[in-house]
Amino acid sequence: MKEDENFPLPPMDGYPNCKEKLKWMKDMWRTDPCYSHHGVNGSLPSFFIYLSEVESWCPVLPGRVVPTAAAENSEKKESFKGLYPSLANKGQLRWIHQRIQSMEEVWVEAGRSLSAKYNLTERTAKQILVHPGALTDESGTRIAEGAFSGGPLGEQVQWSDLIATLYILGHHVHLSASIPALKAFLQGKTNGCPSRHLKVEPNLIYTDIVGLRQIQEVIGSSWIKYKCIFRILDTFGTEPDFNHPDWVKKHHLHGPFGGLNMTLLQFYTMFPHTPDNTFLGFVVQHQLMSKESEQFKSTKRQNQALVYGKRATFWQGKEAYVDLIHKYLDVHGTADNTAAIPSYVKNHGIIKGHDVQTLLRQSKVFVGLGIPLEGPAPLEALANGCAFLNPKIQPPLSRLNSEIFKGKPTIREVTSQHPYAEAIGEPYVWMVDIHNETEVKRALTAILNQTIEPYLPYEFSCEGMLQRVNVLIEKQDLCSSTRSWPPFSALQVVKAEAGTSCKKACQRMGLICEPAFFPNLNKLMRNMKSFCEMSKYTGNLLPPSAVCFYNHH
């Protein structure tokens, strides 16, 4: 937009859309009475003041004071007393409310433990909007409703633990579980017009892909100003090929979840599938968390197995496999009343998490049936000292051959019911071909001839999740192009064999593949290549062990 000689435009650093919005306002300011309500009169200064003080598209003019909420330090919470009222009045979050209540004691203790190990002072309390779109009534998924009747719980487990983590860390958590609530928070309207300032300007927004689309509909193009502060819970992850709209269109990779054009690290996964996305995780619940933990420590193992399968479809075609297990162990289940299960199975029906923990504590084997994929239950079994039979999947499942992954923005191939548990390995996790009697017998014999101690990876403990999310909030800045994290000093270079992924190469060394280091490594390697070219003529050759690196494509 052409500058007014009496009103030179200030620097636009950090406001890339300001000039475009000014042009739009010049033509459209009469289309909505809200503009004149806020003093827009057709002049460039009035456009600028509106776009800087009401909608935040432009920088605030020098000399004008815009009141903002005073920054305050984030203090670790000692209870969920302040969180419960906002959970209690949202029916869509009822299951989440119950889970947080049942784990309050361990969350508080984990917060104390973490603060004793690390300095958690001098952190600014963030204003954080949490909007689980798939749980809203408007989404039509009925996930929230199905939580009490055998429906999938993985997403709700993750939302529950994220909300608890943010609150215990001392941040201001604003919960939205409906479109009206979302509008009230983001639009901040008074008499149908945007208020001078939002009641709360969010520093971070946690949502899912359904929720992101809801937010885009609610605030239109204004969502762009929040783009870099979105954190999108995405169970299976989003790979690069499925993120960029032009690439998706060119290669016919369309689906209901791809083409969002976000920074890949904004997708938060349930398990560490890929270094392209961010691992958020969840907390594995187990009986030693309970107030009655002493009672459960003394619980005796029975000669029994618990089958992992709530739905009838999970059991279909697995009769011979379950029959074989029954030759070694009494078989228990927690299936709904639609499942046609063998008569010898003692079925407890759909029961509360506390009762599932009791069954796991009493059992020696947790029996995977191949589905559901990548849920929290196998890790709960391990944490309760119960070995997991993890069915192999051949050929591997992917979006090319599976309805489960059809339309998902990933080409990852799943080789077992639980790939993360697969990496844990024996004696906790036993890979079996459920159609191979010899393999199943070998696994059962080995399990019954040893004592399996409870096993819980730190990253899936309350303290581990508190630590991880705290670091992400404090260090993961996707709005700045200059801030770098992790620090380059943390780099450890690993040489990988041809065809081995960065993830696998680092995993073998007990490390984590970190794409943030790739630009630095590439620069070093370009310099190294130049040095090596010079060495041909100078005779200054590098020793063979001097360079250890991994090429990332």
Share of residues in strands = 5-15%
Strand element count: 15
**Ends distance:** 42 Å
Kindly state the percentage of residues in helix.
Answer: 25-40%
Question: In terms of per-residue confidence, which ranges show pLDDT below 50 for 5 or more consecutive residues?
Answer: 539-553
Number of domains: 4
By DSSP (H or I, 4+ residues per run), the number of helices equals: 21
Q: What structural class should be given to the helix and strand makeup?
A: alpha/beta
Biggest sheet, open or closed, and with what strands and sense? Answer: 7 strands, mixed
Question: Rough shape?
Answer: globular
GO molecular function, one term: alpha-1,6-mannosylglycoprotein 6-beta-N-acetylglucosaminyltransferase activity
Family: Belongs to the glycosyltransferase 18 family.
Membrane topology: Single-pass type II membrane protein
InterPro entries: GT18_cat, MGAT5_Glycosyltransferase
Present the secondary structure layout:
Blueprint: H1 18-28, H2 33-37, H3 44-53, H4 84-88, H5 94-102, H6 104-117, E1 127-131, H7 143-146, H8 154-168, E2 172-175, H9 179-186, E3 189-190, E4 193-194, E5 204-208, H10 209-219, E6 230-233, H11 245-250, E7 267-269, E8 278-279, H12 293-297, E9 304-308, H13 312-315, H14 319-326, E10 330-333, E11 346-347, H15 353-362, E12 365-368, H16 377-383, E13 387-397, E14 414-416, H17 419-424, E15 429-432, H18 437-448, H19 462-475, H20 502-508, H21 518-538
Parallel strand pairs: 1-2, 1-5, 5-6, 6-7, 7-8, 9-10, 9-12, 10-11, 12-13, 13-15
Antiparallel strand pairs: 3-4, 13-14
Helix pairs in contact: 1-3, 5-8, 6-19, 8-19, 9-10
